Structures are given as C-alpha cells and as structure tokens.
Amino acid sequence: MVAFVAVSVLLGGLVLLLVFLFKKAQGNSTPEPSIDQKVNGQALPEKQSTKKHKLHKLRNEKPQQHTFTHPLLAAVLKAHSGNITCLDFSSNGKYLASCSDDRTVRIWSTKDFLDREHRSMRANVEFDHATHARFSHDCRTLIVCLANGETLRVYKMTKKDDGFTFSAAPEDFPKRHKAPIINIGVAETGKFMMTASSDTTIMVLDRKGAVLATINTNQMNNAYAAVSPCGRFVASCGFTPDVKVWEVCFGKSGEFREVCRAFDLKGHSAGVCGFAFSNDSRRMATVSKDGTWKLWNTDVEYKKQQDPYLLHTGSWSGNEPCRIALSPDGRVIAISSISDITVYNALTGDVEEEFHSVHGEVITDLAFDTCNRFLVSTGDRAIRLFHNTAGYRAAIADMKETLKKATNKGTKERLQQQISEAQKALNAVMKKKN
C-alpha cells in the first residue's frame, strides 16, 4: 500500500514538471500578430503587407464602367450601382423607370435627357431586387416584380411641397406563379395587370392582385409576353413559330367577362424570340430564330375571322439573347443581339444604323420613347439614349409620298409644315453628329 502511494506521488510530480516546462517554452516564443494587430500597425513581413494592401484595394474598387461612344449617342443616364434589368416609359412621356440588381428603382425625368445633369427619384427595394417595372395608367404608380419573392410590389409617387416622394405599399401581392416571372404588364385602361412565367402560364390580375383568369399558352415555354399599349390585348411567344394574342374582355359597367383568343401571327419557321407593338397597337413586329423579322398589320376585324397580314419581312444575322423594339409610329424597328443594336426601316427593311458593343453586358431592355425621339437601351449600369434619326428619315419619306397624293390645300400645307419641322430636327441632330 505504501509502495502504491509512493508511485502515485512520483507520477504526479512528473506531470507537474512537464506542464511547467511546456508553459515556460510558450512564454519564450514570439506570438504571431493577430489580424487586428496587423491592421493597427504591427510590423509585418513585406510580402504579407503587399498582399493585404492589394486585397484591400480590390475590395474598395468599383467595377469599371463600360465605355461607349457614337455620334448619335444623345445621353447616358448613370446612377445605378448594379446592372439594370428593365426600362419603362410612362404613357404621358414624362418619366422613364429603371430597376436594377442594386436593390433600387429609379424614375427619371425625360425633359432632362439632353441636359448635363439627369435627375432621378430613387426608392429602395427592401430585402430583394426588382427584375421588371411598369407604370400604371395614371403614371403615378409603379408595379415591380421581385426577383426572390417572385411576386409584385407597388410603389406610389406622392406629391409634396418640395417635389415627390416614392414609397412602397405596406404589403406585396401574393405569390401566384410556380415558375420564374419573365415579364409583367399593366393595361393602359387601368382594368387589369398581367404576369407571365417561364413555363406556359400567363395570369390576368385585377388592380388588387386577385386572379381574373389564367392562360395556358401551350408553347412549351414562354419566351416573352406583354400587354398591348391600347390595353385590350395580351400576347405571348415561345418555342413555337407564332405569336398568340388574346383579348381581355370587360362589360359595359367595367366588370371582367372573359379572356378570348383574338388572332395569331403565323409565318416564321422557328421559335419567336420576341415581339413589339406600335403605340396604337395597329402594328406588331416579331423576331425569330429563323433569322428574320416581320412587320404585321394587326388593325383587323378578328371577330369576323380576318387575319393580320404581313407588311414586310427583313433579315437579321444576330445571335440570342435578342430583343426587338418598334417605334411608336411603326416606321422603325430596332433589334439587339447580345450587346449590339441594328436599326431598320420597317417598311423597306434597309439597315439605317448599327451600334456595336453598346453595353458591357447582354442588353436586357430596348425601347423607343413615346415621342419617337430616342432609342433607349440598357444592360449594364448605364442607360444609353440614341437619336432616332431613322425615325425622322422614315417620317419625312412617308409624308412626302402622302403629299404627292394629297388634293386638299389644307392637307398639303399641313404636310409641308410637318415635313419642314421633321427635316429641321434631323438637320440639328446630323449637325451635332458631324
């Protein structure tokens, strides 16, 4: 028993001795400076210091803005810090809305487009970012689609003494779609909204977000969908080589009745990538994977089985992703291909202008302003506005042809005045170009 106790005491002493020697060795060693100590000025080896400096510099540097110049470039709108996903002009022509993955929505004043400074009103998109934005019929409300929430949020402009405030409604609309939303639309009549997802679903909603009707496009997938400027039609395109158009019908007292098939645009030999309406919805332009674009007359009595008829077919040699825009008067077509833009005379098919590498990323939206003065594009952090010289030339040529056939003196004088004004505007732009 005594021997056992003696062995235990001896082992315990050895353990204590080892612990003492270990702690002493640690005390004599030089500790490695912590990250905080390095930041606070502790001496560092030159190699590590340079590495930290470079890392700090990279974190603080902003991504370099894509540079683009062209004689017809009228203005560049810069305020977003992230890539812009959508543009929309208000129907009264006073505002341009833009949304970005920087979690902001901005409204620009169109009267400032040619000024040095471009004012914008900003609203933050809390906990998400907007992929699409559309003005309501009153031009004071903006409907946006949320990327992560896959639903709609309403922003309202409220007038105050020193201008406007721009704020979100208390609650978002309920999530309706099972697939990602590819576009939204608001009828100019104010009677309905539209949301389209990447499957084959289009939903027609009332102003409070309740579902009025659900459309199955039967196109395998939806590539694009939109509401016509007149507020009567919803159209979609996808995997199939046609565009399908429905009429959203309401009763005399404003109650919703039904969604019925209006007409189809048939003629392409491959899937349709996109389409666009003229301002009066009497013309439509389509672009297809078959390498052609088409201009259609849609001012027909479809209820009497009259089909839209083809006005012109043009060719394009671009690549997807692409977008198409039709000028408000239906005289000019613009097609984007990745980051390039080609402008065509809609009636002759002639190439009027070509803009290459307009944006540093794929062009996400392309549109003409409501006054037909500018072609607007985006895709990176900037919005670029081009003078619509093709529109001026097409309008002058069209009015000159009309003047030849005119017999009424008043009509001739009015046309001559309009030709003179258009030519003066074109000359002013071309003077700046040269």
UniProtKB/TrEMBL annotation:
<dbReference type="InterPro" id="IPR036322">
    <property type="entry name" value="WD40_repeat_dom_sf"/>
</dbReference>
<dbReference type="Pfam" id="PF00400">
    <property type="entry name" value="WD40"/>
</dbReference>
<feature type="region of interest" description="Disordered">
    <location>
        <begin position="28"/>
        <end position="53"/>
    </location>
</feature>
<keyword id="KW-0677">Repeat</keyword>
<dbReference type="GO" id="GO:0005783">
    <property type="term" value="C:endoplasmic reticulum"/>
</dbReference>
<dbReference type="InterPro" id="IPR042410">
    <property type="entry name" value="WBSCR13"/>
</dbReference>
<feature type="compositionally biased region" description="Polar residues">
    <location>
        <begin position="28"/>
        <end position="40"/>
    </location>
</feature>
<feature type="repeat" description="WD">
    <location>
        <begin position="265"/>
        <end position="297"/>
    </location>
</feature>
<keyword id="KW-0732">Signal</keyword>
<dbReference type="InterPro" id="IPR001680">
    <property type="entry name" value="WD40_rpt"/>
</dbReference>
<feature type="signal peptide">
    <location>
        <begin position="1"/>
        <end position="27"/>
    </location>
</feature>
<dbReference type="GO" id="GO:0030968">
    <property type="term" value="P:endoplasmic reticulum unfolded protein response"/>
</dbReference>
<dbReference type="InterPro" id="IPR015943">
    <property type="entry name" value="WD40/YVTN_repeat-like_dom_sf"/>
</dbReference>
<protein>
    <submittedName>
        <fullName>Transducin beta 2</fullName>
    </submittedName>
</protein>
<keyword id="KW-0853">WD repeat</keyword>
<feature type="repeat" description="WD">
    <location>
        <begin position="77"/>
        <end position="109"/>
    </location>
</feature>
